[in-house]
Amino acid sequence: MPHAVNSIEKCSKLLGLFAKGGCGQAFFNPLLELLKDDEALVRQCAISQVAIFVTTLGPDKTKNLLLAIKTCASDPKWRVRKAAVTSVIELSLHF
Question: Which of 72, 13, 19, 63 is nearest to 43 (CA)?
Fold first, then answer.
């Protein structure tokens, strides 16, 4: 599982770069799928990276990701819920 976490963290850095370059829309569906993954650790890592993406593109273009944060805040695993709350805190610093 650490490999999956490392991959998600690397992808999140790329996500930010692509989003700034106008290619962010291409990552919506894959990111949304990661947020629905069966493994809690994958969901936790994905939700912790959503704030980077939302702050880059803006909340108007990322409504589905904001809804995903809400869904993850009700996740059965506490670490996923904690990551969702942390994302909200990060977003509140930008908006």
Answer: 72
Cα–Cα distances in angstroms (integers) from residue 51 to residues 1, 58, 69, in the given order: 22, 10, 9
Q: What is the pLDDT of residue 50?
A: 82
pTM for the predicted model, two decimal places:
0.72
Closest listed residue to residue 65, CA positions, set 40, 44, 47, 82: 47
Which of these, 1, 87, 9, lies nearest to 45 by C-alpha position?
A: 9
Residue by residue, DSSP assigns 2-40 as: HHHHHHHHHHHHHHHHHHHTT-GGGGHHHHHHHHT-SSH
Burial of 70 (0-12, 13-18, 19+ CB in 10 A): exposed
Q: Can you say how many angstroms the Cα of residue 72 is from the centroid of all Cα atoms in its chain?
A: 10
